[in-house]
Amino acid sequence: MLLCRRLLSAPMALTPSAAYDLLRSPFALDDLGGGPPFVVDVGNAALELRDVSATLRALACVTVAVVADPTDSRAGTAPFDVVVAERGVDALVTAVRSNPMASIALVQLLRASERLDVGDALFAESATYAMLQSGPEFQGWLATRRRERATSSVEPAVVGARDGARMRLTLNRPAVHNAFNAAMRDELIAHLRAVAADPSITSVHLDGAGPSFCSGGDLDEFGTTPDPATGHLVRSTRSPAWWLARCAEQSSVALHGACIGAGIELAAFARQVTATEDAFFQLPEVALGLIPGAGGTVSLPRRIGRQRTAWLALSGQRIDAETALAWGLVDAVSGRPRPR
Fold first, then answer.
1. pLDDT single digits (tens) 88-135
2. How many CB atoms lie within 10 A of CB 128?
3. pLDDT, tens digit, for every residue of 273-283?
């Protein structure tokens, strides 16, 4: 009960000097861990906190730097999980307080994954996801979930077409905005395995049929795995993220419409990612009591950094194609390359 009260209590915005004093305490990890977001109003002050950065990385809470200008190049070097402008603090803190366990697990995973290769980072993501599947936040969401949508009958879920040395793969559940289900996962892996086994295929292009590239994981299948351990085993042995990472150098992805959850997590592994002007991007999993589980904690930080990935996942907010282009989440929008 004490832990729950600490997780839901309101955070206090600290000055840099007050933050230093707390972080230098030998009891910082115990006193601050498991609590509300650790928010520091650094303003225009220097963001390099080298002598306490190790403690910040070890805290079992979301650490937030409030800055005058989040686009300042110094912001990305701050040893915090998230960097936001003052106007964005309240919404972020509210989102974290709604699902504190998933939020803390997310930032801990992102910190650790920075130092891991793709395979180990995917393992860590899956293990964290499995842990949260049995937690009260996801189970609470699941209890309110109604499965009302009819499953798309379009077959196959992924269409493959080869043209010489080029393989085109199209997600093919347009009636449900290409919601990513088990059939789509297995068919995509089968195609990618064939590509990996055939050296005469030198390029792979992935797109989506219908109004959207991919609206994320099929919610009708959430919670249908027998248990979290089985789910982790499935993700470890049937991972489209792993196969896309293996084929990354020869892969391109064309995005349009909704690119939610798996719809951007998988795409971000490709060497070249393009988007139409109507594309939008979102990571909604933390609001369900989970974390991105289709490779997003591995692929997105390698494109946009740990802090922007954390903000996307914690806030659940959408970004448009222009923002994605500016961040480097996509490489071109409607033929316009990212400014260098």
1. 899 999 999 999 999 999 999 999 999 999 999 999 999 999 999 999
2. 23
3. 999 999 999 99
The predicted pLDDT at position 151 comes to 55
Take residue 74 and report the two structure tokens written for it.
């110094």
Residue with tokens 């930032």: 107
Helices 118-133 and 136-144 pack at an angle, to 10 degrees, of 60
Which pLDDT belongs to residue 330?
97
pLDDT at site 6: 43
- Cα gap 276→256, rounded to integer Å: 5
- In 3-state terms, what secondary structure has residue 222? coil
Measure the CA–CA gap between 283 and 263, rounded to whole angstroms.
9
Tokens of 225: 């795995």
Give the homologous superfamily in CATH for domain 131-302+317-337: 2-enoyl-CoA Hydratase; Chain A, domain 1 (3.90.226.10)
Count of positions (residues) in the chain:
340
| C-alpha angle 139-141-144 in degrees, rounded to nearest 5 | 110
Q: Which of 149, 212, 222 is nearest to 181 (CA)?
A: 222
pLDDT score recorded for residue 46: 55
CA separation for the pair 294, 260 (Å, rounded)? 11
Which amino acid belongs to residue 30? D
Pairwise CA distance, residues 112 & 104, whole Å: 13
Residues 286/83, Cβ–Cβ less than 8 Å: no
Sign of the dihedral defined by the CA atoms of residues 167, 276, 217, 220, in that order: negative
Cis peptide preceding 156, ω within 30 of 0: yes
pTM for this structure?
0.90
Give pLDDT < 50 ranges for the chain.
Answer: 1-10
